[in-house]
Amino acid sequence: MLLLFVALSLVAWLLLFDDARARVAAHLGRWQRAVGARATRGWSHTANAAGASTRQVAAGTGRLLRGVHRQRLWLLGALLLAGVPPLLILTLRQRVQLDSYDATLVRAEDERILQLLRGERLAPPPPLPPELFLAAEAGMIPAEPDAVTSPAMGQTNNTFALDRIGSADRRWERIHPEFQQRVLAIYRVMEQQHGYRMVLVEGFRSAQRQAELAAKGGGVTRAGAGQSCHQYGMAVDSALYRDGKLQWDMRDPWVRRGYFLHGELAQQVGLEWGGSWRSIKDYVHLEWKAPCREARRAARAG
């Protein structure tokens, strides 16, 4: 971009100022004399040829400059037509957002999460009582085939890939330390800057539990034992928390906005959000994909 601006400025300078063209011609003349002076008697033929070539170049350059001067207004107009629109686009461009995102979602310039990751080590919040999760499991809306569908999101509003959350593992110490810090930073920004409190629903998952969930079919998970990032401490399921309850219902605009905001923040710090998947829309799910892939390979190799 800078090179384009410099090139356009240089051409405009030559077009508009006679003195500029004179300086360029003078420099070419000095270069011609310098080439001739370097020639020695032993290389007289080469020097003569070089001098002739230099004179031809200088003459051609002079003709070119005179032609440019005569057509300077047309050329300047063409340069403006070619150069100004890209400059305006790059100057005035805005960040593109998916239609599914609320216009009030966090912007890319929000550096709060990165500051947290570079600064203090965040401590996990105190655990909530198990009864809260048992009640949430009992009150979860089932994903029926005729459930209400949102045209904006293109999938069932109340679909969450969760099952048996009352007995899920919510111990933060079983989550990979670096991944844990990224999730906690998202939690803090969600609460302090956007007014959403988040709760860990499930972290680590054993191979046995993963196999049991996979046996329930693709509506819960498509990953078998050894395939889920939960088994390596590199995935979490989190829920919004309001009025003493976990909030699942994507028909609620407040809930929908919160989960999309949660996903946007996660993607900013290099995590994958289940709400961006094409098959199962797992809005509560975050995973650390690349390290998880390496962990799976190491487990298979071992």
UniProtKB/TrEMBL annotation:
Annotated Gene3D superfamilies: 3.30.1380.10
GO molecular function: peptidase activity
Domain of life: Bacteria
InterPro entries registered for this protein in UniProt: Peptidase_M15C, Zn_M74/Hedgehog-like
Domain Peptidase M15C: 224-288
Pfam families per UniProt: Peptidase_M15_4
Identification of the protein by name: Peptidoglycan L-alanyl-D-glutamate endopeptidase CwlK
Organism: Aerolutibacter ruishenii
